[in-house]
Amino acid sequence: MPIPACRLEGDPFICSSSSFSSIGEDFPLLQGGACVKEEVSMARATDVEKENLQYDDGLGLEVDDDTAHQISHDPWYQVGFVLTTGVNSAYVLGYSGSIMVPLGWVAGTTGLVLAAAISLYANALLARLHEVGGKRHIRYRDLAGHIYGRKMYALTWALQYVNLFMINTGYIILAGQALKAIYVLYTDDHVLKLPYCIAIAGIVCAMFAFGIPHLSALRIWLGVSTILSLIYIIIAFVLSIRDGVNSPVRDYNIPGSNNSKIFNTIGAVASLVFAYNTGMLPEIQATVKPPVIKNMEKALWFQFTIGGLPLYAVTFMGYWAYGSVTSTYLLNSVKGPVWVKTMANIAAFLQTVIALHIFASPMYEYLDTHYGPGKGNAFSFQNLGFRVMVRGGYLTINTLVAALLPFLGDFMSLTGALSTFPLTFVLANHMYLVVKKNKLSPLQKAWHWLNVVGFSCLAATAAAAALRLIVVDSKTYHLFADL
């Protein structure tokens, strides 16, 4: 039976029907099947819920209207390509060195498969929480605020945006490294240093951000991103095969002392989590057309099946070809024609520009919604000028941090431990427990609590390992280093 539409007018909830069938615990304002006709004090709602609301295509689900970006607009396959663009970004060129080298064949292969399965499960849980309390929650912080209250809203906001800021900064470093790799292919005069390449990358990322008003507007750029990903992945894959065939003797022993192996293993586990997760699933799910949960699950299956194949191919082949000496940027290990390696690095640079826009979109949405001139024409003088000023300022900060700390990987590991683990695994399982507690069997509850406790311990361990790496590497690297 369809749920009668309600709207929020000032303080009271007004219902358009005189009776309801029982609709369960997910609709706490409509208990016992009776429609609340009288005014209901807004003190019962959290501050997070006091936003302007609209209805989701007549489905009876309230949707946050206070956003300058498009929602409920994209087919599931477009959202699937958004997810795979992040998974197969130029970061995949580092997984042979950052995951397989510290873990080896058995643990590395098992870890990649298990991390994919666990990540799919956790993201599916989060996707099913998108519609809670008769409302679509288009932001992670809104969902957490609805379930836990204002304090958790603020904490989730802080964790998510610190995480995304570090990822965005990492993308700019990665783009700068691709430019530097191109330069080194043709000259070794060291005139063009990494900080200069990072500055160029930041400018290009900003120019792209000015022209793409919101996540849904990527559209054709997702196809371009897929082609670019295939270019550098195929080139790295083919050149690795050739090098592996010509170099039959390879060492696959895990390098380092026993003490360093332990911490490197923990860091590699954090990289496994980073490889598959965005930390912004509700924001991506907000763009998908109804039925939202069903379509988002299709997109997730696409990401973790077809979308993951390029990642596996280049990661395993790179490690097979070079063993324990595999570079953390695979294109620095491969040998081949200069023009081919140049094309791969150009593709990696351009794809990074597109991928960064995905992970920056929650920040853009916040800035556009709260400080922008309004919805209107996205390319009006006012809106375009606002993007140039605000997004340009945000990416300038990213670029400055990237140039200042080009060894940011250690800090990203710490951020991942303190935010990616809690957001993707701990919080997702606990929120599911809170929302579905009366519908879960004791065994199911025990399973979710095991995930909450287990991933909390893993996050604490990964944070300790990241702090150690920061202390060790701070003795080696310096600010504005030309790595």
UniProtKB/TrEMBL annotation:
GO biological process, any: amino acid transport
GO cellular component assignments: membrane
Keyword Ribonucleoprotein: no
Domain of life: Eukaryota
Compartmental location: Membrane
Keywords of this entry: Amino-acid transport, Membrane, Transmembrane, Transmembrane helix, Transport
InterPro entries: AA_transpt_TM
Pfam families referenced in this protein's UniProt entry, alphabetically: Aa_trans (PF01490)
Membrane is among the record's keywords: yes
Parts of the chain that traverse the membrane: 103-126, 161-186, 192-213, 220-242, 262-279, 300-322, 342-367, 388-408, 414-435, 447-471
First and last residue of the signal peptide: none
Residues annotated as domain Amino acid transporter transmembrane: 76-465
PANTHER family the record matches: OS05G0424000 PROTEIN-RELATED
Protein name in UniProt: Probable proline transporter 2 isoform X1
